[in-house]
Amino acid sequence: MVGPVLRAGAWQAVAGVSGVAVVVGGCGAAFPAAATVLFPVCFALLAGAAAFTLDEPASLVVDVTPTGPVRRTQIRAVALLAPLAAGVLVMLAAAVRGLALPWAAVGLALAGNVLLGFAVACVVRTRTGEPGATVGTAVVLVVMAPALVPQIARWVRTFPAPDSGGPSSDTVWWTVLAVCVVAIVVSVGGRNLPPWMSAVPVSRRRRSYPTVQPP
Amino acid sequence: MTATLTFGPPGAATGRATFTALAIRETRRFVLNPVFLFAVAFIVFALWAGPDAGVTDIDTANPYPAIFLGGFGMMATYWLTRSMRASEPVVGVTPVTRPARTAALCVVALVPFACGCLALLRFVQLIPVSSPLYGPFSPSARVAVLVGQIVMPALGGPLLGVALGRWVRFPGAAFVLFLVLYGWVSLVTILSFSHADSAPVAVLRLFAPFAFFTYTGDTGGVTAFRGSPWFFIGWQLALCAIAVLVALLRGAEGTVRSRIIRGLAIAGVAAVILLALAASGGFTHAVTA
């Protein structure tokens, strides 16, 4: 069961976007002056990569199989290791280069970015089989908003740049993590979603089917 | 036996009418795209509100049209182009060729281009060309800087989106390319702060669809980077031509294909020459005013 579900994942998309993120983050580690600009770009790409982990081109068939959404999501969550490993690799490279960043806060930002992409994908997966492209774009634009529009950075920051003053990114990411956990639990459980949020008929969202035992 | 003679319009006129109808249809779809509508709404708000009181040089105030009309426009046209992919087996048997449909898609770039022109006029109204915020550039070079930073990205971004949509299957390609370009422009600009007089760094800075030309250093005053803003516009126009030709190449056959390939070679050579001229022209070292 685990093997086929994992094989069907959009590994090329996840690995490809994570690879681009490693290149961007590597440039940040190589040029410390640009690290605080390139690391947020790298983390946004990793959030985009996480959004592709639940893509299922054959969702019309898969969604009615006995394997429920909880189990499928658990298995597909293994793919999150790719963006997380890419982020840790970039952080290690930066640490080796001697960059002075608040590493705990940077690690929290990495986890928050990846979980945000995954959580939004979980929610949108209840409506469509391939949420990756739409969710990835939306999450990237939201996460990059403080960098694209400096006025937003006065209130919200998504990357812990040292000595820059302003609000802490930790508050943002702890809040995001809490909301994401709730969103994942609710969307995978499929119970309390408002009707407008799910286009999939209830009959197709059953989590378990009676199995026939062989005699 | 009867023979029926029809006096319809000649083939060229029919083709032109079909192309116009296609272009109008695609333009209508583009204008109603929520991503583009959001971009336009933000630009209108930003230009209505005007720059912050603490603006020290124009480059801290003018990248919004490039990001929103260019970057978001690229994502919108990418989706517009990809949206027909599923119906390609049906659309592919119609009398209209794929290059003609691609050309109709390219026409939609005129909408963000027009928005960019309006944004330029409003920007000049907010910060007149005579303002010291433009640094040591001559009045004509100041206009060239603004055209290269506001109008040209608004044209080139959507064209790039069409080319990307025609050739790349990965559905997240637009946001990945947007972030890569954003990261590249940021990296080479930051490198230019510490290597303002370096010719290779100037080439790297201008080797992008968007480039900054000024910054405010610790010494006060506005410093202008190396490079010619006028030739940079030429480089951007060459990139636009390459994007259109690459988009048209998909599905082109016979003489049309060979013509496009020849055009691509010419545009490529022109782009290289214009990039070299942009890097070697203008100020030969960073100048502070």
Distance between the termini of chain B: 87 Å
Integer count of domains of chain B: 1
- Helix and strand content put the structural class of chain B at mainly alpha
How do the helices and strands follow one another from N- to C-terminus of chain B? HHHHHHHHHEEHHE
Number of helical segments with 4 or more residues of chain A? 9
So what's the oligomer here?
heterodimer
Question: Any idea how many domains of chain A?
Answer: 1
What's the Cα radius of gyration of chain B? 21 Å
Number of strands of chain B: 3
Helix content of chain B: 55-70%
How would you sum up this structure, described in words?
- The complex is a heterodimer of chains A (215) and B (289).
- Chain A is mainly α.
- Chain A has one domain (2-205).
- Helix content of chain A is 61%, strand content 0%.
- Chain A is built from nine helices and no strands.
- The radius of gyration of chain A is 19 Å and the shape is globular.
- Chain B has one domain (20-288).
- Chain B is built from eleven helices and three strands.
- Chain B has helices at residues 11-31, 34-49, 64-82, 88-91, 98-107, 110-126, 139-167, 173-194, 199-206, 229-249, 254-280; strands at 214-216, 222-224, 287-288.
